[in-house]
Amino acid sequence: MAPRLNPLTTLTAAAAVLVITTAASSWAVSLTVAGGAALLAGVTGTARRVLLAAGVILAPFWLSLLLMHGLFFPEGRTVLASWGPARITAEGLGFAVDMGLRTSAFVLVLLLFSFSVRVPELVAALAVLRLPPQFGYVLASTLMLAPIIAARLEKVRQAQESRGLVVGKGIGNRLGAARLQMVPLVLGLVHDAGIRAQALDARGFRRTGPRTTYTQVRDSRAQRGFRILAVLLAVAAVAVRIAASLPGGGQA
Amino acid sequence: MSQPSLTLPTPGQRAGRNRRLLEILGAAAIAGTFIYLVLTQPADITGGLGSVSALVALGGFLLGAVLLIVGVLPTLPTSTVVLIPVALVLNIVLGQLMGTSGLPFYLDAIGTVLIAVLAGPAAGAATGALSSIVWSFINPTVLPFAAGAALIGFLAGTAARYGLFRRFYLAPVAGFVTGIVAGVVSAPIAAFVFGGTSGAGTGAIVSAFRAMGDTLLAAITKQALISDPMDKAIVFTIAALLVYALPRRTTFQFPFVRRYNVLAGKEPAKRNA
Amino acid sequence: MNSHKPDAVTLRAAIESFAFHGDSRPALQGVDIVAAPGTLTAVLGGSGSGKSTLGRLLGGWLAGGRDGTLKGRLQLEPGGQQEAWQPLVFAGADTDPQIDPAAWAEQVGYVPQDPAAMLSAVRATVEEELAFGLENRGTERAEMVRIVAEAARRTGLAGLLERDPATLSGGELRRLAVGCAIVADPAVLVLDEPLASLDVDGTRTVTELVTAELARGTAVVLLSQSTDALARSAEHWLVLDGGAATAAGPPDRLLAGEELASSGVVVSEPSGPHPVQAQPRPCPAPGDVPALKLEGVSFGFDTKNPGRPLLLENVDLDVWPGEIVAVTGPNGAGKSTLLRLFNGLLKPLRGEVRIGGEAIAGVPTGIIARRLGLLFQHPHDQLFERTVLREVLFGLDRVFGDEAPGRAADALAAVGLGAAGSAHPHELSGSGQRLLALATVLAREPEVLALDEPTVALDAHGLKRLSATMTAAAGRGAAVVLVTHDLAFARAHAHRLVELRDGVLAGR
Predict the structure, then answer these.
(1) Which CATH number fits the domain C9-263, given the four candidates 3.40.50.300, 3.40.50.450, 3.30.1700.10, 3.90.1640.30?
(2) CB contact under 8 A, A75 and B46
(3) How do the domains of chain B map onto residue ranges?
(4) DSSP 8-state symbol, C74
(5) Per the CB < 8 Å rule, is B247 touching C85?
(6) Interface mutation vs chain B, best among C77, C83, C427, most B CBs within 10 Å
(7) Residue C348: partners with Cβ closer than 8 Å, 6 or more residues away
(8) Is there a contact between B228 and B179 (Cβ–Cβ < 8 Å)?
C-alpha cells in the first residue's frame, strides 16, 4: 500500500502525526501513535526492519531515562523508595514514561516513513516542490554511498595487511590502524568526488532553469486534499496547545 | 538560427540577495528559538511534558536549519556538493558507532568539520544541518539537533577562515570553544524534546547533576559542557589530520582554501621539478 | 538529441599552457589540436603526459580560473550556414570567459577514463541515469523517453535499461558513460582510454560504437596510452610527452619516428600487444623446498549453498625460488581470489598453503607479509602516507633497522621514482602510483612476490621497470607469481604459464 502513495503524502502524514502527538502531550496519545505505527509497519511488511532499528535506538534511551528520572528527580514529592541521594518518585517515573512514549512514537513514525519510502521517488517528488536539486542529490547519494564505502574500507584493510600492517590487540594499535585506514579511504573518496563534480556540471547539474523528472510519481486529487487537511490539523493542534498555555488558559 | 551561449552569465544580483535573505532568516529562527527557550524554561519542564517548549524547539530549530540549507546549497560549487554525501557518511557511521559504545562522546561531526575547513562556514553550516536530516532516516532522534550541527559547521568554517587550522595545535582549541557554544545550544533540545540524553555515558553524568538538585535543563547543559568541548576538540583534531593528509592539488581545488590560505601551516608537499 | 545527423562542428584548441592551482609546473604546454567532423584523432602519450588534462579541458570539465591557470584559445566552428561562435580566448586573467560546462557539453562530450566517474550515482537504473542530463535541461518527459531510447539504441544498451548501473560489466559501463554524454547530442566526442581494462568482448562493442559515431559525422578525439587497433584507425596522431606535444601527423610517419618510443606509449603490433620480445627461459632447477606450495586447496564464497560449484577445486601449485609463474584465465575465474589465499586474507575450505615449507594457517596476514609481498590492482587502496619516501619506509625499520633508509632508496630507484621521494603519492601519475606500490613490496625483499594484473595502467616506461624488477627479484632467488590477462607479457617473462579455468589450475 504505502509505496503506491506519493512520498509527499506519507511525509506530510508523518509530520502531522508527530506535531499532533507533541501538542497533545499525553501518554495515551503517544502510546496509541507508537502502537499504530508498529501495526502499520506490520501491514506494509517493514515491521522487522522498523522494530529492529527502533529497538536499537530506544532501548538505551529508555534505560537512560528510567535511571535518570526514576532515581533522581528532585522535583518529585511522592517518594516510593530511597537509598541515600537516590529516590524513586512517582513523578519521576511518570515523567520518564511520558517522555519515553513520546520519543518512541517519534522514532517509530519517522522510521516507518523512511523505511517505506522509495528514495528515487522521494527525490523526484522533492524536485517537483522546487527544493534545490542539490538537496535531493545529497539525500540519495548519502543513502547509496554507505555500502560502497563499506566495501572500499574492506579493500583498504586487505591491501594494508598485505603490506605488513599488523593490527594488534591494544587500543593504541587499533587507533593507529584506524588512522592508516581512514587516510586512503578519505583521500580516495575526495578524489572521486572531485571528478564526479566535473561530470555532474557537464551534465547540467548547476543549470538554473526549470527541471523535469524521468521517474513518474503517482499523485491524485485525493492525496493533494489529504495533504492540505493534514497540515491544517497540525496547525490547529499547535494553536489549541498555545492557547491553552497562555495565562488564564491553564497550565501546560 | 542563433547559437546558444557557451559561457556563463555573470551571476544576477537578485538571486544572490534572496539567498542571503534565506540564510539570515534561518540564523534568526535558530537564535530566536534559543532565546525563547532560555527565557521561558523554568516553569515549563516539571509541570508536564513541556509541550509548547518542545514544539517551539522542534519547529524553530528545524525551520532555521531548512532555511539555511535552501539558502546555502544552490550557492555551493558542485565540487563541494558532491563531497557532502561523503562527509555525511563519515558523520553517520562514526556517530552510530560511538552511540553504541557507551562513551560520553559523539564524534558525529568529523565530516562536517572537514567540509567547513575546505569550503567555508556557509558550506559547513549546510552540511551540519543536512547531516542531521539525512541521518534521521535511520535514527530519527538526531533530527531535532539540526541547528546545533549547523552551528558546529559554521564555527569550524569560521575558525578555518581565521587561520586556526594552519597550526596543528590550534585546531583542538577551536574545537573546544565550538563545543562550548554547541553544547549550550543543543541542551534545550535534549531537555524539552527528549527529557534527557540517549547515551548511557551522558545519562550517568546528567543523573549526577540531578542528584545535586539541578533543574533538568541545567543538568543537561552542564553535561554538555563536560562532553561537547572534549568531543569537538577530538573531532577538530581528526579533521585537521585528514585535511593535512590530502594532496595539495586536491585542497587547492577549493577557492576557500586558496583565498584564506587555510592550511598554510601544512608542510607543502614539494613537487619535484 | 535527434535521430538525424548532428550539426557538423569543428573543434580547434590551441593550449599555450595550463597549470593546476598550487602546481609550479604547467600540466600542458603548447598543444594544438583540431577535431573535424567524421574524423578520428588520437592523442597518444605515456602515463602523466597530460592526456587526461587535455581531454578534460577540451570537454569543459576543467575550467580556467576555477581549476587552474589557462592560457590559449578554444573555438567551435559550425559547418554550413550557421552563425559562428566567438572564439574563447584565455589569458590566465580574472576577466577570462567562464565556460558553461553544460552548454559546452552539448557540443563537446568528454567520457572519462573511469566510466563510473561519469555517472551521477544517484539513479537506480540505466534509463534514469541516461535521463539525468535531460532532467536538468528541463526536457519534456515524452521527449526524454524518446531520447533515452535512441541513446540506448546507439550505445547498444537497449536490453539493459532496467538494470542497476552498479551491476554492469566493464564494457557495458563504458557504453553507459558514452550514452550519458551523447544524450546531449554533441558534435565532438572526447574518449579517454575507452578500451582500458576491457576484455575482448568489451573491446569489440566499444570499438563498434566509436565506428558508428564516426559514420554519423561525429568528430572523435581518442586519448590512449597504446597504439591499439582503434588508435591505428585514426587519421591523425598527436604525441604528448611531459605535457607538451612532441610530434603530430599521420600514424605511418609517427610510427617510424622516435618521439613515440620516448613518450612512453606502448607500441603494439597490429596483431598482438607487446613490445618485449619473447625469449625462451630455462626454468631454475627445483631446490629442496618450494618457496610457495598449494596442496589440494579448495575455496568458494557462498559455502552455505551446496548446489553452487566451488570457485577453486583441489588446486595444487609449486613455485620454486627464482621461478616466475604466470596465472592466466578468463574474467571471474578466481585469479585474484587465488592470490588472496597465498597470504591468508582468505582461508581455504580444504587444503594447505605453505611458504618456504611452513604452513600459514593461523598466522596473521600482516606477519606473512614479511615473507610474501602481495601487490593489488588498485594502488589507491594501498597508499596512505604523505610522501613517496615515507610510503616505502613505512614499517621497514622493524625489518631492517638502520638499513631501512638505504633499502627504501634502492627500491625507489629500482622502479624509477628515485627523484620523486618528497612528492605526495596521489600526485604521481597512474603508472607512478602502481610502481610506488611495487616499490613498497620490493623494499621488504620477500621470498615470494605475488602480483595482481601488474601491467594494467603501466605505460611503456613502467612496463620496462616492471620487467626489470621482476627479473631482478627472481635473480636473487625470490619466487614470483603474477596474475594477468596480458598473454604476451606472460609469455615474455614467465618460466611457466598456468591457466585457471572452471576452478581447476592446469599447465599450458
Answers:
(1) 3.40.50.300
(2) yes
(3) 17-260
(4) E
(5) no
(6) C427
(7) C297, C298, C299, C312, C341
(8) yes
b/e map of C485-497 (b: 16 or more CB within 10 Å)?
A: bbebbbbbbbbbb
How far apart CA B89 and CA A186 sit, in angstroms, is 11
Residue C55's nearest CA partner among C30, C85, C28, C79 is: C28
Contact present, C243 and C24 (Cβ < 8 Å): no
Cβ-nearest to B140 among A56, A85, A107:
A107
8 Å CB contact between A232 and A20: no
Whether residue C21 lies within 8 A of chain A, CB to CB, comes out as no
Do the beta carbons of residue C457 and residue C375 sit within 8 Å? no
ipTM of the complex: 0.88
Which grid cell sits at B270?
A: 614539494
Q: B11 — contact with chain C (CB < 8 Å)?
A: no
Out of A133, A159, A200, closest to residue C382 by CB: A159
Q: Do A216 and C141 touch (CB under 8 A)?
A: yes
Contacts of C98 in chain B (CB under 8 A): 7-8
C80-129 pLDDT per residue, tens: 777 788 899 999 988 899 999 999 999 999 999 889 899 998 888 999 99
Best residue in A180, A203, A207 to probe C by mutation, most C CBs within 10 Å?
Answer: A203
CB pairs under 8 A between A and B: 194
CA dist B23 and B21 (Å) reads: 5
User: Averaged over C135-143, what is the pLDDT?
Assistant: 93
How far apart (Å, rounded) are the C-alpha atoms in residues C429 and C435?
10
CA distance C240 to C69: 20
CA angle, residues B188, B189, B191, in degrees to nearest 5: 65
pLDDT tens column, A209-250: 888 889 888 889 999 999 999 999 999 998 988 888 776 544
Residue to mutate among B40, B69, B81, with most A CBs inside 10 A, is B81
Of C120, C345, C384, the CB nearest to A200: C120
- pLDDT value at A128 more than 90: no
3-state secondary structure of C472: helix
Chain B neighbours, 3+ Cβ pairs < 8 A:
A, C
Residues 6+ apart with CB under 8 A from A170: none
Domain B17-260 is found in CATH 1.10.1760.20: yes
> Does any CB of chain A come closer than 8 Å to the CB of residue B70?
yes
DSSP character string of C92-148: SSTTS--B-HHHHHTTEEEE-SSGGGGS-S--SSHHHHHHHHHHHHT--HHHHHHHH
Query: CB distance A199–C340 less than 8 Å?
Result: no
Domain C292-507: CATH superfamily is P-loop containing nucleotide triphosphate hydrolases (3.40.50.300)
Domain chopping of chain C, boundaries: 9-263, 292-507
Q: Is B194 close to A85, i.e. CB distance below 8 A?
A: no
> Which of chain B's residues have a Cβ under 8 Å away from the Cβ of A75?
46
